[in-house]
Design goal:
By secondary structure, the protein is an all-alpha fold. The protein has three domains: 5-123, no CATH class; 141-284, Alpha Horseshoe (Serine Threonine Protein Phosphatase 5, Tetratricopeptide repeat), CATH 1.25.40.10; 293-360, Serine Threonine Protein Phosphatase 5, Tetratricopeptide repeat, CATH 1.25.40. Helices cover 77% and strands 0% of the residues. The protein has 16 helices and no strands. It has helices spanning 5-61, 66-93, 99-123, 133-137, 146-159, 164-176, 180-194, 198-211, 218-230, 235-247, 251-263, 272-284, 293-309, 314-326, 330-343, 348-360. It is flat and about 90 Å long. It starts with a helix and ends with a helix. The relative contact order is 0.04.
């Protein structure tokens, strides 16, 4: 495949830059290692000599006794002789700059750019016509992926921050993309622009529940309670308030709330069948139904794995402790408490919050 002259020049320029970068990175392999290793050897010898002089000064000032000074002199002298022998060996053997290092550096400088070009020519599309980002975004909305659609709405909202329709469009999209905190913030902006409604409150509460790994936290519960005050038939508010009661161990109260919601549901309510299944599952089993338990356990396992890699997330530890409490696994909850305390051993404020979470396990 023949490439345009401009593309060839561009590829050569990229190859040259890559080669230059590798050359600068690999210079220590053949140019700087001898001086570096020699400096290290000389520094060690000088350090041990200084230590011998320091021992003599401490002895003269009476800081240490003669026996202690003699033992220290023997140990430092042994290390001094070993360091001096190693420095002499490096100079004699020339191990600080073997020829293979030069060859390796030169090979990498030449081979990496050549390999990159070969792979791109074989697997890439160098002949494809470029399209600027703005042009790629300037297509009908139905042709954009969800991420692209969100990006377009975000750019629009930067120019028109009071566009209620934009906030109401981007919030569910954030939720679908798993960007739960941003979804909650978008619903807050929608309420600032268009006012508080039961639907917007319930939607924000739902986003907060998802951000809290399926737990109905205090902020989400306030949203649902306020939505239910305005409209007692708001289905999401009543459902999640029932879920909160179930998490707290009030199984009968949750069932009563859900059955009341189901009794007043329109005939064509899309959520009615799922709610019936949830009610039946809770009546058959423990506080967490067989329908929801795999989903909740999956979220909890994912949270635990993330905390194992990044333990500096106090809110994450508190969610994990609450989640194990909801799952009725006190042993795992106490392990989470121990892990949280280990991660924040020097933070008194964090330890106080962890202690409060531990106290809730006995409720």
């Amino acid at each position: 495949m023949l490439l345009p002259a401009n593309d060839i020049i561009l590829f050569l320029a990229f190859a040259a830059l890559t080669g230059l970068t590798l050359w600068l990175m690999l210079r220590p392999l053949y140019a700087g290692s001898r001086a570096a290793e020699a400096d290290i050897g000389n520094s060690e010898v000088a350090l041990y000599r200084d230590q011998l002089e320091e021992i003599e000064r401490d002895l003269d000032r009476g800081i240490i006794g003669a026996a202690e000074a003699e033992a220290a002199r023997i140990e430092v002298s042994r290390r001094l002789l070993a360091a001096d022998e190693e420095r002499t060996r490096m100079r004699r053997d020339g191990t600080a700059d073997p020829r293979w290092r030069k060859g390796t550096a030169l090979f990498l400088v030449l081979a990496v750019p050549a390999l990159a070009i070969a792979v791109y020519l074989a697997e890439g599309s160098p002949g494809m016509e470029g399209r600027p980002f703005a042009e790629r975004m300037n297509v009908p909305p139905e042709e954009l992926p969800l991420e692209g659609l969100v990006l377009r709405i975000e750019r629009h909202l930067k120019k028109e921050p009071d566009d209620l329709r934009g906030w109401e469009l981007v919030a569910p999209a954030y939720l679908q993309l798993g960007r739960f905190e941003e979804a909650a913030n978008a619903w807050s902006r929608a309420m600032m622009v268009g006012g508080v409604t039961p639907g917007r409150l319930a939607a924000r509460g739902e986003a907060r529940v998802m951000a809290d790994d399926g737990i109905v936290g205090p902020a989400a519960r306030r949203d649902f309670e306020r939505a239910a005050e305005i409209d007692p038939q708001e289905p999401r508010a009543q459902y999640f308030l029932g879920a909160a009661e179930l998490e707290a161990g009030n199984r009968d109260a949750a069932l009563e709330r859900w059955k009341g919601l189901l009794a007043s549901a329109p005939d064509n309510a899309s959520w009615a069948a799922a709610l019936r299944a949830r009610i039946a599952a809770v009546e058959r089993g423990p506080a967490i139904s067989n329908v929801d338990e795999p989903m909740i356990r999956g979220m909890v396992e994912g949270l635990a794995a993330r905390l194992a890699e990044d333990p500096d997330d106090l809110d994450g530890w508190l969610r994990l402790i609450r989640s194990y409490r909801v799952l009725n696994e006190p042993a795992m909850a106490r392990e989470a408490v121990a892990g949280a305390r280990a991660a924040f051993s020097g933070d008194e404020a964090a330890l106080a919050r962890i202690s409060l979470a531990e106290e809730s396990l006995s409720d």
